[in-house]
Amino acid sequence: MGTRISGLASGMDVDTLVKDLMKAERMPVDKLFQKKKLIEFQRDDYREMNKHLKELDTFIFEGISRQSSFLKKTSTSSNEAVITGVANGQGGTQKVTFDSVSLATSRSWIGSEVTIPDTRESSKLSTLVHTLPEKVMLTLNKPSGEHTSLALLIDPEKESIASFMQKISQSELGVSAFYDESTKKVAMMSKETGQGFSLHTTDEKTEALFKKLGFSMTASELIGSVESKDGKDAAFSVNGLAMTRSSNVFSIGGLTVTLKNNTTTPVTVTTSNDTNSVFDTIVNFVERYNQTIDKVNKKIAEPRFRDFAPLTDEQRKGLSEKEAQQWDEKAKSGMLQRDSLLANGLATLRTNLYKTVQHSERDFQQLTSIGIQTTSNYLEKGKLVIDRDKLRQAIEKSPEAVMKLFTNNSTVDGEKGIAQVMRQTIATTIQQVEAKAGNVLRTNQQFVLGKQLNDMDSRMKAFTERLKEVESRYYKQFTAMEKAVQRSNQQSVYLSQQFSNGR
Question: Which InterPro entries does this UniProt record tie to the protein (predicted)?
Fold first, then answer.
């Protein structure tokens, strides 16, 4: 670019003149900028609607599309201080009576009194055994045939009886251990209940240590004193059938049972359908569906303010922050007004909700049969309303039929559950919207509005380059004018001087 002479000769504000001239020249670029912003607004609104649809799809998937949501059970015990039961959903409604309950107990190993020398170091293991093992080797054999082994590192000079017992308890051996200073005895107990646990040492030094801790041994098996007891399996009868279990917590007939106390008095655990949970699952679905279609309906009914084009940077400078915010709200409004993709998606969803699901029970093959229908108020545009009493009665009468209405899995259209059909419709709508507006993982070249944005960028770039040339031309023209004015001024001064000299 050549040298610019900005009004020195003519006295004109050339920079301002060029700036004003460029405003007119820049108008087509501003129009392109505004069109680009409108496309971006539309893209963002599409993606926001897709976000709501995906959230609805996830809600359906985690709720009414799962059979487990309809198979929940509740259980009550006639004496919860003795027995409690939690239904796991695998069994039907039932009454189970437990009688003659005897709890499972753990295997215990109790040593005889430990003879400790009367020294200041009396708590140290080294006072009991002159040559301590660096590793204590123990194995716990279980009734199941499994076993766990322990190789416990100890410091012979520092390890106390109490700290040694604590390390055993904290290990993965499966045994709790402690030293009682009042009785001077070591006590150990299997963490699991049941009959048939045994504890073994696997080297001579470990055996010698436990003998000093008051335990007798039989062929490397830890026996203990006469206070030691073998564990017992839980014993009880269920509806008259005698049973045993190694644990006080077990499953039977779709019920997870916890035995808490011995008893000779019968205790009944009753399992029934969890009507409240199923009811809440369906009500929550209806509420989420209504929230979603309300957001989409409001978006496609939003008014369009065509007189409020997106603000350019120059226009924004002339407004206050509040004025710019209000302008932006109107400029962004109505980007999806009467949008066919979303309107068709909602219409198909409404059709899905009217459909008949052909399954085993004819009385529960439509939503209306369980008390759910669309509102009669046309202004609410297809929202669902619930007859709560009718819904609860349907769940209590036939929970399996209500479940099939929503979850029936089939490749035949007329037999597909409402959840399956709705998820297919939502997936199709989301795919169509993404083809037009993309998502965060797609490049502009992979969706319709993105290609339009790329085209706008290319046109704006080309026009911007042209504007630079126009601006340069204006400055050249003004510079030429300034030079001409300067020459004219110089000639005028020369002539004036000549006339003055000729007097």
Answer: FliD, FliD_C, FliD_N
* pLDDT above 70 for 6: no
Q: Is the dihedral of CA 11, 14, 15, 21 positive or negative?
A: positive
Q: Which of 459, 452, 475 is nearest to 29 (CA)?
A: 459
Q: Degrees (nearest 5) of the Cα angle 6, 8, 12? A: 65
Alpha helix positions (H), 382-447: 388-397, 399-407, 418-437
Measure the CA–CA gap between 294 and 286, rounded to whole angstroms. 12
Return the closest-CA partner of residue 38 out of 321, 271, 318, 331: 331
CA distances from 310 to 110, 300, 332, 355, 448 (A): 85, 20, 8, 44, 21
**For residue 218, pLDDT beyond 70:** yes
φ, ψ at 331 (rounded to 5°): -65, -35
pLDDT tens digit sequence for 45-84: 999 999 999 999 999 999 999 988 888 888 999 999 999 9
Q: 256, 298, 271: which is closest to 52 by C-alpha?
A: 298
Instruction: Locate the domains of the chain by residue range.
Output: 38-68+277-442, 73-103+233-273, 106-222
Instruction: At 209, list the tokens.
Output: 């240590």
Return contacts of 288-294, CB within 8 angstroms, 24+ apart. Answer: 288/55, 288/56, 288/59, 289/56, 289/384, 290/383, 290/384, 292/52, 292/53, 292/55, 292/56, 293/346, 293/349, 293/381, 293/382, 293/383, 294/383
pTM of the complete model beyond 0.90: no
Q: What is the DSSP string of 467-478?
A: HHHHHHHHHHHH
Q: What is the pLDDT of residues 479-494, one digit of tens each?
A: 777 677 667 766 776 6
Task: List alpha helices for 336-398, DSSP H.
Answer: 340-354, 388-397
The amino acid at 58: T
Residue 278 exposure: Cα atoms within 13 Å on the Cβ side: 30
> What is the assigned CATH class of domain 106-222?
alpha beta
Q: Report d(CA 218, CA 213) in Å as an integer.
A: 15
Pairing of strands 94-102, 83-87: unpaired
How far apart CA 288 and CA 295 sit, in angstroms, is: 11
- Cα gap 127→148, rounded to integer Å: 29
